[in-house]
Amino acid sequence: MPESEDTRQFKERIQRLEQEVEGARRISEALFQHLRVDDIVKQALRVALDVVNARNGSVLLANSDTKELVFYHTIGENPVPSGTGIPWNKGIAGQVFHDAEAMIIEDVKMDPRHFEDIDIMTGFTTHDLIAIPLKRWEGDPVGVMEVMNKRDGRLNKNDLSILTIISSATAIAVEESRLFDELKMAELGRMVGDIGHDIKNLLTPVANGTWLLKSELEDLYASNAAAAKSDKGKSSQKLCYEILEMVDRNTRRIQDRVKEIADCVKGLSSPPQFGPCKFQEVIASVLQALQYDATRKNVLLQSQGVEELPEIQADERRLFNAFYNLVNNAIAEVPSGGSITVKAHIEPNKVSILVSVVDTGRGMSEEVRQSLFTSRVVSRKPGGTGLGTKIVKDVVDSHGGEISVESHIGVGTTFYIRLPIQPPLLSPPKIH
Questions:
Q1: Which uninterrupted H or E stretch holds 155?
Q2: Under CATH, which number does the domain 270-432 receive?
Q3: What span, in angstroms and rounded, lies between the C-alpha atoms of 405 and 416?
């Protein structure tokens, strides 16, 4: 006896409820094993595709600074590169994010809201699609999950019901992870502040002792004029004064460095103190400060073209910190026998200089490169925080400059920094 329509609908509903329960179980099991946003996003998307039997999917998270939806993770053929951003008011994803309402699109090509740039960039063809906001049951979205191209048939309302459960759990996990990171950074900021205070206290006698030692040396050389006037005496005196000056200068730089790290952790950025700056002296100081470590690793430090640069208006202290970070990070990546070269030249427009820090290190993956200068950057050095590149970006931004990076695995990495000779705020007014 054939089953009635009511019986068939009842069985379908039971099957759908079982799928939803299984989806909820799997997402709960997957998400609460992880604390990092990247891991949460990857697990959530994998579960979503498995549960609705779809071929492709992406998770985009909102970046309020750039007003973009940023691709954090993509599964399937022709994946979108991690870090790719699209305007958060464009396309189907943009509308879902703005309205906080899910959409089911059976034929994406026929929908005028479809943002084709991504398909063109990757060579991928989207057929059917569910886009669902990543948000708690109540609250604003933190991003969008897109699931595409169901393997058997088209994505439908039943799939949407399951994805709603997954997306809500994912949003909660992402928010909790971000709150956890903020708490860690707040605690780190407090600790760095305390450490900075201790370092300042410890360095004070070093600075005072340097001044006293210099005074003692001057008295000593004055009391023995004959020895002081000899070639050996002059050489010794010059070397002593250079060492004392280096100790004094680097003592102050350590204090500045700790303060800058603390400010970076707290999300602060002090305004630059512009003044006449001889860039070649900044680079010479950086290479001198790092020469011992580079020599110990058999890494060559060198510069090209920096002596020919004109004087620029810049914050010399902060430029030193930025290039110290870049060269110091590169030393850790370059194998014995390799090199790090700081190249520079004035650009044809005569209003800016282009500086490149070129290393022959191991290079970095595209995923790591894409994460640089973003909130997702993670240091590859044991115990590192990833703050170094953020400090560099803050310094370049404060000077009205630009920074970019090229890298190839096994070949090396090059950072390009463009700095105006005269920062925008100091440019003379235009005469009309």
A1: none
A2: 3.30.565.10
A3: 6
